[in-house]
Structure formats: C-alpha cells, structure tokens
Write a structure and sequence with these properties.
The strands form 3 sheets. A 6-stranded mixed beta sheet has the order 1-2-3-9-6-4. A 3-stranded antiparallel beta sheet has the order 5-11-10. It has a two-stranded antiparallel sheet with strand order 7-8. The chain has 2 domains: 48 residues; 369 residues, Cytochrome P450 (Cytochrome p450). The chain is of the alpha+beta class and 580 residues long. 55% of the residues lie in helices and 7% in strands. It is built from 21 helices and 11 strands.
Length: 580
C-alpha cells in the first residue's frame, strides 16, 4: 500500500472513491457542455423567433406557479380532510358549525362570562381523560385537561409538539420575536443554556435587594394615603413595580427610567397584542391603533438595541479596562452583562443584537406580567379572608422581626440603584437573607394558590408535528393541541374544593407540584419557565413587606372580576383598596 493509498484509506477514501471522483468530474464537464449548447439554442431562438422564447418563458413560469401554489394547496386540503376524518371520532364541543367550527361561540364569549378560556376549561374537563374536538375557523384543534396527556405533550414526546407560532403566539411575536418562548431546536437549546447561566442562583440575592428597594418605594407612596380613606389601584402599581424589578435585574435601569419608558412603550404594546389575540382583524386593518402599535414596537426595539450596543462598546472599546463585571462569574452582574459575557467578539453583529433584543423583551413579558398578576390576586384573596390574612401577616412579621418596618429604610433612599452592592451595604441591609425568606411558607403557598385558582396563563398551545395518541385517541399530524391549564387547575378530582382559595395546599410540600402535571403555572418538563424561582422570590419579598406594614381593605364592588381579553389574566377594572 503506497503512502497516497494509505492517506486515502485513513481519510475514509479508496481508489474506487478516486474513480468516482473522476466520474463526477467527467459528469460536471458534460453538464457544462450541455448548458452551453442550451444557451446557444436559446440565443438562436431569440434571434429568429422571439415569440417562441416568450411563450416558453410563460410556460415555465406557469409550471412554477402551479407547482408552488396549486400543488401546495392540494396538499394542504388533503391534509385538512385527513385531520377531519380522524378527529371525527372524538367528542365534539357544543356549538359546532361545519363551515366555521366553534368560531361563533368562542367569539361570542369575548368580553363576557363565561369567557373563551372558561369554555375551553369546561369542554376539556367534561371530556377528560380524552381530548375534546374544537374547530376555530378552519383550524382543527383538540383541548386537553388530563395530566397524563399533558405530560406526553410537555415531556415524554416533546419533540413531536412544536410551538404554535402561526396561531396562538402570532399576536405576541412583536414582543416575543425569536426569543426563548417561541424558538425551537438548536436555537432554543443555545438560548436556554445562555439564559440558565445568567439566572444562576447568585443573581437571586440581588433580586432580594432589588425587590426590597422597589417595595420600599411603593410603601412610601402608600404611607402618604394611610388612614385618609383615599383609594389606590394596586394592580397597576404592581405592574409598575415588577417592571422596575425586572428592568433593574436585566438592564440595571433606574426606577425613574423604567417608569418613563415602560408605560409609554412596552405596556401599550402588550395591550394591543392581547386585543389581537381575540380580535385578529386588528393585525391587518390600517387603523390609527395599527400604526401607533407599529411605531411603538419600532421605538422599543431601537431603545433596547441601543442599550445592548452601548454596553457592548463599553466592554470592548480600545480604552476599556477589564474588570469583574465583564465575567459571567461576577455575582452582581445584571442579566445583560451575563448574556453578553457569553458572546464571542467574532460573533457579535446586527443578528446577535436582534436576537438579544428579542430575548430581553421576552424577559420583560415573562418577568413582570405573571408576577404582577400573582401579587394582585393573592392580595385580593387574602383581603377577602381575615383568618388567612392574619396567618400571612403574622408570618411576615415573624420573619422580619429583626428588621425595620419603616418604609423609609436607608436602602430605599439610595441614589444608586444598580445591581452592584458593596460588601458594607450588604452587611447593613434591612431585610432577611434569601435563606431566611424560605420561612415565608404560608405566603409562598398563597402566591402559588392564586396561580392555581386564577390560572393567569389559562391555555398553552402546541402543534402536533406527527401522528400521535393522546388519552387513547389518535391525533393526526398538523392538529393544534390546546392545553387547558385552567381546566386541569379546576378539576375537583385533582384539587379538593378546587374553586376555594386554600394556601395550605402548598405548605409543607403537601402537593406534588413538579411531577404529576396537574399544577402548570410555569409549565413542566424540559421547557419549564426558567424565571419561576426569581418570580416567586420577588413576589414573597413584596407581599411580606406590604402585609407587615399596612392593612388593606377592598373599596369597590367591582373588585375581583377577571379581565376576559388579557393574558396573563388581570382584573377587569383594576383593583382598588384603602390603606390603614
């Protein structure tokens, strides 16, 4: 065996491979000759008979259109009838019409009670453990509220169920983009790894500091109306507070900058996205709201991209001095610092900026909406039950007994509100440590119970990528699977007195909330919410501080009504309280 033959053998090639390469080379020469002959014929045809050339081009164009449009249409129609054929065996939800499915009862429920999410819950619970068939316009769906089927979708057969960006997530793509919530495959794995590194346990200590400063600012506002009989709308206050917390945790924004930017840009965008989810025509009609929404999205993207670009230039300019903030191991770097630290200089560019902009917007959505809804519904339920309120208040006072209850704490008056805190400041802070906050078991139980009772994200959708079985029934490829989170949360056979607020369900690990797929506020399985611990930590700090300092009383009869068009589920007309 010669040296050349040996090299070929080691590289996985042989003389036969070389012969094949020769054949390929001869083939490519033949192709070049034929292409030149063809071009010559076309040129001659154009000189002597241009009409024939035009006709030939027209035929080729028609063939391409036919292949791309009509063949595709035939495929889609056959797939639609295939789904119809197999799904006909399932129990069908009430109000079905062959032409438009269940569109009429679902849209009639918008703005009313029971609302759209209530109908999904009612239909799925009645059919469980089998799926119930629902058709929205021409889209074939099944709704499930069975933990076994939900586990299959979220875990055991997760590769067969993709994110439904064409339907359910579509109205929110201006916020979510290609971030962690909507991404798939390698993009999702890369983002999840990067974000999970940024959300390591060290940053939770900073979240305690940030949340304490935020609730102290709210306490100062509440102190001004204490005992005056003046009302305050707490739902909106919690939205602003949670935006301040996530804004500082992600971008080191000051509360002033957060209050200036987020209500003007982010919150109106979210409101319009929510309206489009149940009023899809708003996406296409060129109304004033359409153009205002488009302008706000553009401004928000430009604002976040500018922050990313500025931070990157600061870290990598020629005059930059390396410091511990450039490392992902710095325990007090904000989330943007941590994510940027994982990006090589050779990869940074417009595409990375766009992707990071989407990830930050996803953080804003996931990091404040659910937390704000969790806080307001917990406060509402506790004010309705003096006995439960007393248990929660006594627990908060016990855990905070060695710390001042004054809203005007030294830390709340700090002029510097970045995530970086010195060792001396930490030694003098006026709040319990993260470990000590774990003693707030009843308050955490109340927060978790409000997420169950109100199911602030009432449905989650997936697209069936291949034929499968759920609840013993065949589900054909292309079917939209709607997981009724509200349905499974309200099943009486899974939750005793399911419509009753009982925080003790989650005290002392009495409820298995991670293995049986009957508790889903943060989803379960490989795609569960990475920020759930941050959200619960922030919420317990806020709730404990408010309960130990103030007494809240509902001041309007309209309190407690759920909004029928917003996700996460928020109060319909705010939530008004007096403070003493």
């Amino acid at each position: 065996m010669t040296a050349r033959t040996t090299d070929n053998y080691l590289n996985g090639t042989t003389n036969k491979t070389n012969e094949d390469s020769g054949l390929d080379e001869s083939g490519s020469i033949s192709e070049r000759v034929l292409s030149r002959i063809f071009l010559g014929l076309v040129a001659a045809l154009f000189v002597h008979c241009p009409e024939a050339l035009i006709f030939a081009a027209f035929v080729v164009t028609l063939e391409t259109i036919f292949e791309r449009v009509f063949v595709r249409l035939a495929f889609d129609v056959s797939a639609w009838f295939r789904r119809l054929w197999y799904l006909r065996r399932l129990e069908i939800a009430p109000g079905y019409n062959f032409a438009i499915g269940h569109t009429k009862p679902l849209f009639e429920a918008v703005g009313k009670y029971p609302c759209t999410w209530d109908l999904f819950a009612k239909w799925s619970v009645a059919a469980q453990p089998r799926p119930v068939r629902v058709q929205i316009f021409t889209r074939h769906c099944v709704v499930i509220a069975d933990p076994v089927s939900i586990k299959r979708v979220f875990n055991t057969n997760i590769k067969n169920y993709g994110k439904d960006t064409e339907f359910a997530y579509n109205p929110f793509l201006d916020i979510l983009g290609t971030g962690l919530v909507t991404s798939e495959g390698e993009s999702w794995r890369r983002q999840r790894q990067r974000i999970s590194q940024a959300l390591r346990m060290e940053i939770l200590d900073d979240v305690v500091d940030i949340s304490t400063r935020a609730v102290n600012r709210l306490s100062e506002k509440l102190e001004k109306i204490r005992g005056t009989g003046k009302e305050i709308e707490l739902a909106e206050e919690f939205r602003l507070l949670t935006l301040q917390v996530i804004g500082e945790a992600i971008l080191s924004l000051s509360p002033e900058e957060s209050d200036e930017v987020m209500p003007e840009l982010y919150l109106p965008i979210m409101e319009e996205c929510n309206r489009r989810s149940l009023e899809p025509w708003r996406t296409f009609l060129p109304t004033k709201a359409f153009f205002e929404h488009k302008s706000r999205v553009k401004k928000l993207n430009a604002y976040i991209t500018k922050l990313i670009r500025k931070r990157w230039k600061t870290k990598h300019s020629a005059t930059a001095v390396p410091n511990e903030n450039d490392s992902i191991d710095n325990p007090h770097a904000d989330i943007l610092d941590r994510v940027l630290a994982d990006v090589p200089k050779s990869e940074y560019g417009p595409e990375v900026e766009r992707q990071m902009c989407d990830e930050i917007k996803t953080f804003l959505l996931a990091g404040h909406e659910t937390s704000a809804a969790m806080l307001i519904w917990t406060m509402w339920e506790l004010t309705k039950s003096p006995e439960k309120m007393k248990i929660a208040t006594d627990e908060a006072k016990r855990v905070y007994k060695n710390f001042s209850s004054s809203p005007s704490s030294p830390l709340s008056k700090k002029q510097t509100t970045t995530a970086t805190t010195t060792k001396e400041e930490k030694e003098g802070r006026d709040h319990p440590s993260r470990d000590e906050l774990n003693q707030l078991e009843y308050i955490v139980g109340a927060l978790k119970e409000s997420l169950r009772l109100y199911s602030v994200v009432p449905v989650v959708t997936r697209k069936c990528l291949g034929d499968d079985y759920l609840g013993g029934d065949f589900i054909p490829k292309g079917t939209t699977v709607i997981i009724s989170v509200q349905g499974v949360h309200h099943r009486e056979d899974l939750w005793k007195n399911a419509q009753y607020f009982e925080p003790k369900r989650f005290v002392g690990n009495e409820t298995d909330e991670t293995g049986n797929y009957s508790y889903l506020p943060f989803i379960q399985g490989p795609r569960n919410c990475l920020g759930q611990y941050l959200a619960l930590l922030e919420a317990r700090v806020v709730m404990a501080n408010l309960l130990r300092k103030f007494t809240f009383k509902s001041s309007r009869e309209s309190n407690g009504a759920k909004h029928t068009k917003m996700i996460p589920i928020a109060p319909n007309d705010g939530m008004w309280f007096t403070v003493s």
